[in-house]
Fold:
Amino acid sequence: MFGIQGGMTAVWVILMIIFLVIEGIVPGLVSIWFALGALAALISSMLGAQIWLQATWFVVISLLALVVTRPLAKKYVNSRTQATNADMLIGQECIVKETIDALHGTGAVSVAGKEWTARSAAAEEIIEEGAVAVVERIEGVKLIVRKK
Structure:
């Protein structure tokens, strides 16, 4: 009997360590709740609880921790995105300041008083300097435009 209990204690310790290692490796919170569940199961194992009760503690505490803390964690941990007004540029006309040529990797446009690196929406289309184009989308720091 003691062998099984001691074995389960080791299982819960190993699971808790695995969940904590995963938490340390992966960005964002993904497994901390299960580490807490494993801790609860570990404590119940050390107090002599049967295996079914240990598993129940693991599931209940993991789910409870997940449900209670996930919304808060999501709000504060993943709040590093910074809103920009760049999406306002989509659909606006722009003036080509440097010939847009995907083959040579060149192209710049001026829109809303700012100069942007630009590429043509049609990969092989060349848009000459001075032409008017329309912004279709933004990819990273480049505007993807089409000739008007």
Notes: The radius of gyration is 28 Å. The longest helix spans residues 51-77.
